Amino acid sequence: MKPKYIIGLMVVAGALAYLIFGGLGQNLVYFITPSEYFQQIDRYQNRQVRLGGLVKEGSLSYNPQTLELRFVVTDGVKEVPIRSSGATPPALFGENRGVVVEGRFQGETFVSQNLLVKHSETYQAPKEGWTPEQVRKLIEETQ
């Protein structure tokens, strides 16, 4: 083969690899846990991060008039209070459910701009002719 074809093939292969692996890295969601935060507080203070864990039972407080949402995220070892405002929480958001919050630590409180909730891995489409009550029951079973 001629050297120009080999070089051209290498450039195309490199560009393709960059597109595949570069795009993959941007779509992965990495987060820290409350325990990881407390191990390196100075590293994460006042920086944009993602914090993940479970919403602690009994900690959820939401005011629909002010859109103020407060709850505690735990990894079973450590806990972090979360404050979020300006948006209605997603329908699948609730106590004892997985959540990833994006935002910043301000002192001991994490101020969130975005909530990502874990959803059921199973999907069952409503059958044709189902009543609204049957669809509502299906939704409740998946939560």
UniProtKB/TrEMBL annotation:
The chain crosses the membrane at residues 6-33. The gene is ccmE. It comes from the Bacteria. InterPro entries: CcmE (IPR004329), CcmE-like_sf (IPR036127), NA-bd_OB-fold (IPR012340). One of its GO terms (cellular component) is plasma membrane. The keyword Metal-binding applies. Heme binds at H119, Y123. GO terms for biological process: cytochrome complex assembly; protein-heme linkage. Keywords: Cytochrome c-type biogenesis, Heme, Iron, Membrane, Metal-binding, Signal-anchor, Transmembrane, Transmembrane helix. This is Cytochrome c-type biogenesis protein CcmE. One of its GO terms (molecular function) is metal ion binding. It is found in: Membrane. Pfam families: CcmE (PF03100).
